[in-house]
Structures are given as C-alpha cells and as structure tokens.
Amino acid sequence: MRGLAVVALSLAALFSAQLEGSAQDRRTVQANDLYRIRTASSIAISPDGQRLAYVVTQVDSIDNAYYSHIWLANVNDGGPPRQQTRGKVRDRNPVWSPDGSTIAFVSNRGGNGSQIYILASDGGEAWALTDMSNGAFDPVWSPEGDRLLFSSELTTRELLEQASTADSLSSTGERSAADTAMWGSMTAIRNWLAKNAENEEPAVITRLDFQGERQLNALESWAHIYTIDLEEKKPRRLTDGPFDFFDPSFSADGWSIAFVANVTEGIHPDYSVKNDLYIMGSNGEEPRKLAIPGRSISDPTWSPDGRSIAFAARDTADRSAANTVIGTVEFADGDETFEVSWLTSALDRSARVYRWSPDGSSIYFTAGVHGTVPIYRIRLSDGEIRQMVSGERGVLDFDLSSENLAYVVTEPANPSEIYIADPAGDIERRVSELNTGWLSGVHVQPHNGFYFRSFDGRRVQGWLIEPVGYDSAREHPLALEIHGGPHSMWGPGERTMWLEFQLLSANGYFVLYTTPRGSSGYGHDFKFAIQRAWGEGPMRDVLTAVDTVVRNHPVDEERMVVTGGSYAGYLTAYLVGHDHRFAAAVAQRGVYDLATFFGEGNAWRLVPWEFDAYPWEDPEILREESPVTYAHLIQTPLLIMHSDRDLRTGVSQSEMLYRTLKVLQRPVEYVRYPREGHDLSRSGEPLLRVDRLLRIVEFFDRYVYRESQQPQQASQ
User: Fold this and answer.
1) How far is CA 576 from CA 394, 413, 538, 569, 570, in A?
2) Taking a C-beta distance cutoff of 8 angstroms, is the pair 175, 191 a contact?
3) Among 9-23, 145-159, 432-446, which is the least confidently predicted range?
4) Which distant-in-sequence residues (6+ apart) come within 8 Å of 562 by Cβ?
5) Under 8 Å between Cβ of 542 and 516
6) Which of 564, 425, 437 is nearest to 497 (CA)?
7) What domains are defined for the chain?
8) 461-472: per-residue pLDDT in tens?
9) Beta-sheet pairing, 27-28 with 51-60
C-alpha cells in the first residue's frame, strides 16, 4: 500500500498544474494536497470558558488512513493549541465534565470498536469507561459529573437474551452437526437454519430497511440509552424494546432525561419516519411521550434552567423537502402540561447546529442561506432573529460561553480553521493554524458569486472560479460542477468540494457551480420546485448559468465539461441526454433509472417522497424523469464512476447506463472502486480519493486539450 501511495503522489505531480516561478512564487493546488489538509470538528468550550477542545482529522499517506485527535486551545491568552491525544486512532466527540477537570470522548483506540474514554484535561493517559460489545457513542455528562449517559446498539436476539426471554435458538443447547440437523426432526432443521441465518450465512431478510450504507442490515439492531457511574463502571440500560432511542440530554438538576425514539404502537420502526420526543426520570422510570403531531423530532436539549427543551423538527407531511426548524417545549405546571413554540419558521431556512446561550435567553443556530452558513441568534423574549457570524463562508460547528463564540469555518482561502469572537460575533480572531502553513505557498482562487434569471424568470445563484493563470485575452475551458441531494446547497463554504474546485482551477478551467431549483438555502418553495420534476427545471437552470458565464467571460465553448455525483450524477446523465454542448462528462454514483432505484437503493423513499408515487402507481412519471430513458441520445464522451459497496444508489444504476451506451458504441468508460460506499469522494480511502480526482482531471483533459496545448500555468 505504501508503494501505491508513492505512485499516487507521483501521478498527482504529473497531472496537477504547477505555478512555480509565478508572481508570488506559489504552486497550484494538487490532488495530493488531500494528505496535507487538516480539518476541525466537534468543538467544545470548557465550563469556565477558558479552554477549547476540538478534534483534528488528517490523512496518513503511508497507512492510507484517517487519524483524529483531540486538541486544546486557550481561549484568551492566544497561546498555541496543544495536542492531547495521539496514535493511530480515531478520537471524536469530546465532552467536558461539569467541573472541567476531565473530558469524555469516543475512540477506537482499544481495538474493540468505538468506546467511551475519560481523559484528564491537564494531560495524561486516557482510560476506557465502557466495554460494550457493539460499541458506545454520544456521551453526555450528568450535572453532578458522577455519571454519563451514552448510547449503544443491541440486536433483537441480545434484547431477548438480556430480558431472559425464551429463545428458541438457544433452548436446544449446542447446534446439531449438519448431517444430524438435515436428517433430524423439523425442530432440529429449523434450529440449524436459524443459526446459519444468525451468522448471515446466508443473510435471511425479512425487514423493509435491509440496506445500510455499505452492507446489508439483515439482522435488526436497535440503539438504546445507558447510564454509567464513573466509580462503579457498570452500564445500566434505561430503555427497552425493539425500537431506536437516541439523542439523550440531562435536565439541569439531573433528575430527568429527554430523548428521541421511533416508537409507534403496532408499527415496525422501518415503516415509520416519525421520531417523537420523550422524557423520563434519570433512573429509568417509565418514559412519557410529549406528542407533537406531524413533526419528526431530533436533538433535544434542556434549557439551562430546566424549564424547557429545545429540539429540531421536520414536517413529516413535507418529507424530503421540509425545512428543519427549531422549536421548544415549555412546561407550565411542573411537567404535566407543556406549550410548543416554533422559533425559526419565519426564517424559511433549514436550521443545522444549535446551542442554548448560557443564560437561557437565546438560542444560537446555523442555517444555510444563499450559499453561506452563518450563525444566527434568536432572542426568546421577542423572537428577534439576528445574524451574528456571516461572510462568504460556512460554519460547520460551533459552541458558545457567556463571553465567546467559537466556530469552525470553511472558506475559499482555507478548508478548515477555528475562530473565536464575542457572543455578538465581533472582535473575531483565528485560534488555529491547521492549514495556514502549507497554504502560504499555494495559489488559491476566490469564488465570485452572481445571480441570474433562469428560463422562467426564477432568480438563481451561481459562483465562478477563474482558472489559475487567467488571461482575459484568450479563451479558457469551463468545468460545470453540479451538487447532489437533490436538496443540498453549495457555496464558498462547502468543505467537501474545496480541493476539487481548486484542482480544476489549477488545471486551467473556469469552475462554475450553482444552486439550481431544489437547493436548500432559498426557502421552502424554491426547494419544493422540483417535486415530480427532477430533470428539466434544474437542467435548464445550470445551462442558463453556463450561457450567462459564456456571455460575460472568455470561455471556449468547444471545451466545456460537466460532472456531478449522486443526484448530480443523475442530472449530469440527464443533461447529456438532452444537450450536446459539452466535450466530456463524468457521472458519479448516480441514479439513472428511478424504478429500479426504488428496489436497489437504501434511499428508496426518495421515489414516493419526490414523485408522489410508487413504481406500480405511476410508472410513466418515473420513466419520463429517468436519465436512462434518454441514454440512446447521449453523444458526449462519458465517464461513469461508482463504488462496489454503495448501497445508497447501487451499482446496477451505473452498469445499466454503461451497458446501454456500450451497446450503442458510444464513447463511455466505467470505473468501479473497490471497498467503498456512496461517500468515496468525502470520506473514502485516501488513495482512492486521489485516484478519483486524477481520473476526472485526466478524462476532461483528454477531450479538452487533445488538439491544443496544456494550460499555460502547467508548463511554468
């Protein structure tokens, strides 16, 4: 594997444009900069407000792996951050104890899956608090600091065994040998078959949601909430039954717990998408459901005074296009009656991360807005919503104390850094240097935003990145990048695309990306505009963006290319089946036949949610909206990419499109990545991610530069 990494780095140097000797003596971005990027996450301010814990993740090029460690920074003195954990491990989710003396976190360092560890905040060795057979996650400190809540999964069989329920599989003792079972009684045969199914040899599937992200979920497993005392170190399960319980939160006095569960009487959880809010005593008393009709709840958090609970919610009737809104439950008489308030509905944007202010007077939250992700504050006394941290960037995570806001930012100049400001968002300063060092010698291009009117007068936003070495006196190729979702949102703060955008610019391309109809960040109606219409409207939006750029910039219309993944793989294939202006296209991990996607992908609910019909109810709409219907019209050279273990969309989608084009003898290639799932481009094996980037660049260059010189900056 080390040799392969060296080969990948050599290929990166070969295919990536260099700018050595340019005006600032800076090189251009390369594919192997993936190994240099460090990203921050899981930011947490200590209870006294003086220290900041966060996680830093970086690729190890030798091991072809990601490692994550916990770092601490002093909030006020400006000293350099300190790395608190080390090793070839994935540490994540640091949570301060109430007195700030220790940090609980999740790690795979013990070799027995992810467990919860405890680390003294002033240093030393971390020790394992849990040893759960299926791992442990989501630690939550009690207000007293003497115990934690956490979550862990149990299979249905494990639930039955722990409840001392009669188990037909184990009641007969050791399994009979194969010959005895096969020639014995039907009871022996059934026991033998059941044991094979338990080991998934073969997988016997009886559930609706049998596909995970990268493997089958034939055996049912359920998330449950536990409590554990730091002295006794013996976990105790607080929830019961074949249901999922998650997102636990302690009340301020430690007497109650709020959590979310998917429990509907008489309905298997696979048939329900509604999660309800519950509270119960912290010793595991009978849970009480706080019924909020028509909403699916997540991430409940008690207010500092314990009188209310904030939560995130989605309208179950609106399905995939619904905005996530922040609400509160306020208890009137003890906890017997409550009143629900919806805090962010008027903003008409989808809320993301949220936090209570320490005094409980406000809630801070992030939301995608016109390609950016700012921090907002809503004042509970009068409902005023104010933007506290803004700019052409994206805030991925944040935390706050009475004196400071700390937040993780992605912006065009840097994929990840941490900033601190006061609670009003003023007096901002950077406290990390995750990428500033290596970026000081790299030429990075800005994103230039613009708006345009699409074919039907709808106002749509786009961004254009100029090629490195841009010369207004000559024409340059253009790469159109399309986002997936379909209800995602890109902008200058999109971390997942930072390297790809800059790499294409470094190779001489204008890089154009947009937020076509269906995108988040522009209100519910804009997002809902593609209901039963995934193809034509968004296609015409992005093509109008291309026309707008061509009119105003020196673009070589004979050398334009297009790419996108997931829903954007769908739209790429749909586009080249309807329009022939592009010199080459790359469709990645896409959906190309909606009817088969219903049966193949774990995101199958998008079919009834987005098209208001199952395949047997309205096959014609699915046929009309499927790119494969128009595959015979594709003339554009097409590279199709997919990953072996992608169960979100499924490889047969790509293979159906590939075979169709191959039978028609059209210029097409199919690249199938081993061991990876749907998120190859974001979190897959580093070497395969570099390979993917270089194959896209090489495929484009093959058709864009075949009759001309390579981009000017590549030869400097």
Assistant:
1) 31, 33, 13, 11, 10
2) yes
3) 9-23
4) 479, 480, 481, 482, 572, 575, 576, 582, 585, 586
5) yes
6) 564
7) 439-706 (3.40.50.1820)
8) 999 999 999 999
9) unpaired
Q: Are 623 and 599 in contact (CB under 8 A)?
A: no
Classify burial at 203, counting beta carbons within 10 Å of its beta carbon; exposed 0-12, middle 13-18, buried 19 or more.
middle
In this predicted model, what pLDDT tens digit does every residue of 564-608 receive, in sequence order? 999 999 999 999 999 999 999 999 999 999 999 999 889 999 999
Closest by CA position to 204, among listed 214, 192, 218, 217: 218
Q: What are phi and psi of 581, to 5 degrees?
A: -85, -15
Question: Alpha-carbon distance 611 to 445, whole Å?
Answer: 39
DSSP state letter for 287? P
Q: Burial-class residue 111 by CB neighbours within 10 Å (0-12, 13-18, 19+).
A: exposed
Is the preceding omega at residue 202 within 30 degrees of 0, hence cis? yes
User: Which residues lie across from 120 on neighbouring strands?
Assistant: 102
What is the rounded distance in angstroms from the CA atom of residue 28 to the CA atom of residue 386? 38
Give 79-108 pLDDT, tens digit per residue. Answer: 899 999 999 999 999 999 999 999 999 999
Cα dist from 531 to 133, 527, 536, 593, whole Å: 43, 9, 12, 17
Cis preceding-peptide flag for 486 (omega within 30 of 0): yes
**Cα–Cα distance measured from residue 701 to residue 716, given in angstroms and rounded to the nearest whole number:** 18
User: One-letter amino acid identity for 361?
Assistant: S
Distances (CA, A) of 666 to 21, 83, 625, 635, 636: 42, 54, 22, 7, 8
Q: How many angstroms separate the CA atoms of 308 and 301, rounded?
A: 9
b/e per residue 456-467 (b: at least 16 CB within 10 A): eebebbbbbbbb
